[in-house]
Design goal:
- This protein has a single domain, classed as 3-Layer(aba) Sandwich (Rossmann fold), CATH 3.40.50.
- It is built from six helices and five strands.
- A five-stranded parallel sheet has the order 2-1-3-4-5, with helices on both faces.
- Strand 4, helix 5 and strand 5 form a beta-alpha-beta unit.
- The longest helix has 22 residues.
- The radius of gyration is 15 Å and the shape is globular.
- The termini are close together.
Length: 190
């Protein structure tokens, strides 16, 4: 059974704590037999949704940038993991632009994410993780996606690059989440 999981790094920093977490989740998914792909937003242009709603008629987004390529990979995947650091109690502008456009286009195309498995990962320095976790979760749930649990919320703490590795409980939670994503996809597909 082929299982594909994409992990999206919503940090504008290459190789930072968010990327470390997403890689941990994908590594766990691979150990469960999934094919994985890491998608970074720091090296791509994804403009914000302009609210034109033309996607309802054309079934595509009129804004020309790297969004379409990312969206197609999300549609092809069985599992979608989106990670973001906390920026003033919220997800990064890069993540927000992606989920707003992906959400509208998914609905315009007939709820293309419905039944997929996935969920958010969040990195915080000290606070704001609950708001950011909820903000990302509010993308997955209205899309009809299934979000598996883990040993705790998918949150880890760290400020400086690599510091998140010191959060043993956070890393354990993220690894377990990656495993649970694949476990649930297998249950659904069998």
């Amino acid at each position: 059974m082929r299982i594909k999981v994409v992990g999206i790094v919503g940090s504008p920093r290459a190789g930072g704590n968010t990327e470390i977490l997403v890689r941990e989740a994908l590594s766990s998914a691979e150990k469960q037999g999934a094919e994985t792909e890491l998608i970074t937003l720091w090296d791509k242009e994804v403009k914000p949704c302009d609210g034109c709603l033309s996607c309802r008629e054309t079934k595509e987004c009129k804004i020309k940038d790297d969004f379409q390529q990312i969206f197609e990979k999300m549609v092809e995947a069985d599992g979608i993991i989106i990670g973001s650091p906390v920026y003033f109690g919220s997800a990064t502008p890069q993540v927000k632009a992606l989920i707003d456009r992906a959400g509208y286009l998914s609905l315009a195309k007939g709820r293309v994410f419905e039944g997929k498995v996935g969920g958010p990962l969040v990195v915080a320095r000290r606070a704001g993780q609950n708001f950011t976790f909820a903000e990302l979760l509010f993308f997955f749930l209205p899309q009809g996606m299934i979000v598996p649990g883990s040993t705790y919320w998918n949150v880890a703490f760290g400020r400086n690059p690599g510091e998140v590795k010191n959060d043993e409980e956070g890393i354990r939670t993220i690894r377990n989440f990656g495993e649970r994503v694949v476990w649930l996809i297998k249950k659904i597909k069998s």
